[in-house]
Write a structure and sequence with these properties.
The complex is a heterodimer. By secondary structure, chain A is α/β, with parallel strands linked by helices. Chain A is built from eight helices and nine strands. Helices cover 36% and strands 24% of the residues of chain A. By secondary structure, chain B is α+β, with helices and mostly antiparallel strands. In chain B, 53% of the residues lie in helices and 18% in strands. Chain B contains 14 helices and 16 strands. In chain B, strands 1, 3, 4, 7, 8, 9, 10, 11, 15 and 16 form a ten-stranded mixed β-sheet that branches. In chain B, strands 2-14 form a two-stranded antiparallel ribbon. The chains are: A alpha/beta, B alpha+beta. At the A-B interface, helix 1, helix 2 and helix 3 of A face helix 1, helix 11 and helix 12 of B.
């Protein structure tokens, strides 16, 4: 369970995020809706331990992030999270395979979850219906292909939490739908908790829980 | 993997990377090149003459005497009466003495008039005599002995004929054909560029010269060789003493000669004076090349800063995957390490090529010595430490950006 308790974050003396309490159950699929500039990204950064809350506490699977050192937080993030962003998810000069394998590079836990990394990557890509040569440089992929590689990287090693920040906004509507189906199938298959952030309400229908970010963040702009 | 990441990231920006490598390479080339030239010049200078206890000349400057008589740089010395030479050479303390007369030239090379003793007593480097590549010491009246470079440049072989000119003028002693009787081995001393003839011969052919004008008074070679010729003037004397303890006393005696204004120079002292003069110059050279290196480091840093924007995304991705601060700093350190390493390798290659050509006239070592290796090591450390600066900026960006760069 993820528990965010009355968390505040100040940036340049200005409070950006101020939220009461939010609990996310393990295996839950949460759709977080909100317009841009409402502090969603800050919230995700807090959740991943990249930013520290000015006050309040975030507990992720019984680990209080505030008690971890920087290095421990980095390790915790490497072990337990998989993240997908709007775009620029991949290192352009690395191959598809290397980009995906990068997730295991910083996490022993993820590495231990994968028996044969090559096979695992191949089967993930197959499941995500992406047929490209593993050696292809990421810069030669289309945006849609890149996003699927990003999903594969987020999923590899079966992290407990998958965070997706507007992953479909660069995709056209047909690809978008297929992308969502594939994402859901895989997240369910490995029983991860999904926190999906988007301004696009039409995507919300598949989710078990939908929250409007402006309802939980007391800071209004 | 981190190494692979660095390598691939660099390969992605190969132009800026190569430019940085080149600028480091040039500074390595300069630093090591100057360092090595200086070292070889030093040993060169210090080894040019040894075992000679004293050099006597008619000048007030000891460096002047050393430079003119031994290094053959400078604008000549006043003449010494030959009688002074005879007097000094008969002093009890003197073990050996060699007269030297300079001023003539042959095809642009300086001519030294002396006698066969020069090749018996002049020693250089580790107490070595000048060795002959072919032929040997003076025998005939018209014998010429050539330094290694002279023989090579003028393409003269043993037994070849040669004609000398007077002073630096174009007049040639047409009727006096010299014969190459000896060619010296390369010694990496000024002797490589000298032509030697006998003092008596020099005097004889100058009997035909009166106050610099050629008088057509022909003396046959045969006649000359039978005449008892005593030279009138010389330029200097090399002295070896029986006992080193007598050096200072002997110096006093010569310096206070009543008949002529002479100066006795102790070569080791004069050389160290010269060395000190050069040292300042060397320090300046090394300072300049160090500045070039600092400049190269700035080039490297500015190229790193220029790619920081591009890197921002990469770092954000790595951070989201759980890469620690240490990883980010390692990436930067590794990049600058590779730049400097590349620069050092390239700089050494350039230097070896440069030295290959320079070694025609200087004998410089190809391999770096311990001090130079240490210098290169310090360069690596400076570069790696310098990479902390862009790494800190990058880390600060990553704190600002969080997981996602807002573009």
């Amino acid at each position: 369970m993820i528990h965010i308790a009355s968390c505040k974050f100040k940036y340049d003396k200005e409070i950006v995020v101020d939220m009461n309490s939010l609990k996310i159950q393990e295996g839950e699929h949460l759709f977080l809706h909100g317009k841009s500039g409402t502090g969603k990204s800050t919230f995700l950064n807090l959740l991943c331990g990249v930013l520290e809350p000015t006050s309040g506490e975030i507990e992720v699977f019984k680990t209080k992030l505030g008690l971890l050192s920087h290095a421990q937080k980095d390790k915790f993030r490497a072990d337990n999270y998989g993240t997908i962003f709007q775009q620029f998810n991949l290192l352009p000069y690395l191959s598809v395979e290397e980009n995906i394998a990068l997730a295991c590079e910083f996490s022993k836990l993820k590495t231990s979850q994968v028996k044969n990394i090559k096979q695992e990557i191949a089967s993930l890509l197959e499941a995500l219906e992406l047929s490209v040569d593993l050696k292809t440089s990421a810069m030669y992929l289309s945006v849609g292909q890149q996003q699927r590689v990003a999903v594969a990287r987020a999923l590899i090693g079966k992290p407990k939490i998958i965070i997706a920040d507007e992953p479909t906004s660069a995709l056209d509507s047909d690809t978008k739908e297929r992308f969502m189906q594939l994402l859901f199938r895989q997240v369910e298959a490995q029983n991860s908790t999904l926190i999906f952030v988007s301004h696009d309400k039409s995507l919300a229908s598949n989710f078990g829980r939908v929250i409007d970010f402006s309802d939980i963040n007391k800071v209004k702009r | 993997m981190i190494f692979r990441l660095t390598y691939k990231s660099i390969f992605n920006r190969k132009t800026t990377f190569l430019l940085s490598v080149f600028s480091i390479a040039i500074s390595v080339f300069l630093l090591l090149g100057i360092e090595r030239m200086v070292k070889s010049a030093n040993t060169h200078f210090l080894n040019t003459i040894n075992e000679t206890d004293m050099i006597v000349g008619a000048s007030n400057g000891s460096l002047d005497i050393l430079l003119n008589l031994i290094f053959h740089i400078g604008d000549g010395l006043s003449e010494i009466e030959y009688s002074s030479y005879e007097k000094i050479s008969h002093f009890d303390e003197v073990a050996w003495s060699v007269p030297l007369a300079i001023g003539d030239s042959f095809e642009g090379f300086d001519v030294v008039s002396t006698n066969s003793d020069f090749f018996k007593y002049y020693k250089y480097s580790s107490k070595k005599l000048l060795a002959f590549e072919s032929g040997g010491n003076f025998e005939g009246f018209y014998d010429l002995i050539l330094g290694a470079n002279v023989a090579k440049k003028l393409n003269l072989k043993l037994g070849d004929k040669a004609y000398l000119s007077h002073g630096s003028s174009k007049h040639i002693h047409k009727n006096r054909a010299f014969k190459v009787s000896g060619i010296l081995k390369k010694s990496a001393t000024p002797n490589d560029d000298l032509v030697f003839m006998q003092l008596v011969t020099d005097e004889a052919i100058h009997m035909e010269w009166q106050s610099g004008h050629f008088i057509d008074m022909y003396i046959s070679n045969e006649e000359l060789s039978y005449m008892h010729i005593i030279p009138k003037h010389i330029s200097g004397i090399l002295l070896g003493l029986k006992n080193k303890i007598q050096i200072l006393g002997m110096q006093e005696k010569i310096n206070h000669d009543k008949e002529e204004n002479l100066k006795a120079v102790i070569p080791a002292k004069a050389l160290s004076k010269l060395y000190k003069l050069m040292e300042n110059f060397q320090d300046v050279l090394l300072l300049i090349s160090s500045m070039v290196f600092v400049g190269a480091i700035f080039t490297m840093l500015s190229s790193m800063f220029a790619t920081l924007g591009e890197k921002r995304r990469e770092i954000a991705i790595l951070r989201s995957l759980g890469a620690s601060v240490r990883v980010i700093f390692t990436l930067f350190a590794m990049e600058s390490f590779l730049i400097v390493l590349g620069g050092i390798v390239l700089g050494n290659i350039l230097l070896s090529i440069g030295l290959f050509f320079a070694n025609h006239f200087l004998s410089v070592n190809y391999l770096p010595d311990l001090q130079e290796v240490l210098m290169l090591f310090v360069m690596i450390i400076i570069a790696v430490v310098a990479s902390i600066i862009p790494a800190i900026s990058s880390y600060q960006y990553s704190l600002q950006d969080g997981l996602m760069v807002k573009s």
